[in-house]
Amino acid sequence: MSDYAIGEGMEITLHFTLKLEDGTVVDSTKEKAPATFQFGDGNLPPGFENPLKGMAAGESGTFEITPEHAFGQHNPQNIQTLKRDDFGDETPELGMVLSFADKAGTELPGMVKTIDGDRIEVDFNHPLAGRTLTFDVEVLDIKPATTH
């Protein structure tokens, strides 16, 4: 056990479970290796990091994360209608998640929502957008981050 508290410049090792409003587990490290990351490195959205601040090794917590602090609200403008030609060699199927590049060349995942002949509706919202999530954490270790 360390005497450090979670904050800037700290490397944190923890187990977490992320659940939907109905208790469905979306992601968890419980059955596998714990997650290790540096506080503030962008691995966790700020809304997930902020509640951890000040926690110590050996502490556990359950936090409700609202959409604004998790993956944002569902935005209807993030649903685009594309032409079948836009998919190249891919054959779009309902529920399929494909990667698209935006004008800046950034990769964006999009899920096929509807297929109507040559018109395919793709949802570019994060799959957890608009959801309030429960974030269970068990802090295993905290130490000063080492720079590589």
TrEMBL record:
Q: What class of enzyme is it?
A: isomerase
Stretches assigned to the PPIase FKBP-type domain: 9-143
Question: Would I find Ribonucleoprotein among this entry's keywords?
Answer: no
Q: Which GO terms describe its molecular function?
A: peptidyl-prolyl cis-trans isomerase activity
| Gene3D superfamilies assigned | 2.40.10.330, 3.10.50.40
Q: What PROSITE patterns does UniProt report for this protein, alphabetically? A: FKBP_PPIASE
Which spans are transmembrane here?
Answer: none
Q: Which UniProt keywords apply?
A: Isomerase, Rotamase
Task: Provide the reaction this enzyme catalyses.
Answer: [protein]-peptidylproline (omega=180) = [protein]-peptidylproline (omega=0)
Q: Which domain of life is it from?
A: Bacteria
* EC assignment: 5.2.1.8
Q: Does the keyword Secreted apply?
A: no
Provide the family line. Belongs to the FKBP-type PPIase family.
- Kindly provide the name given to this protein in its UniProt entry: Peptidyl-prolyl cis-trans isomerase
Gene, per the UniProt record: fkpB
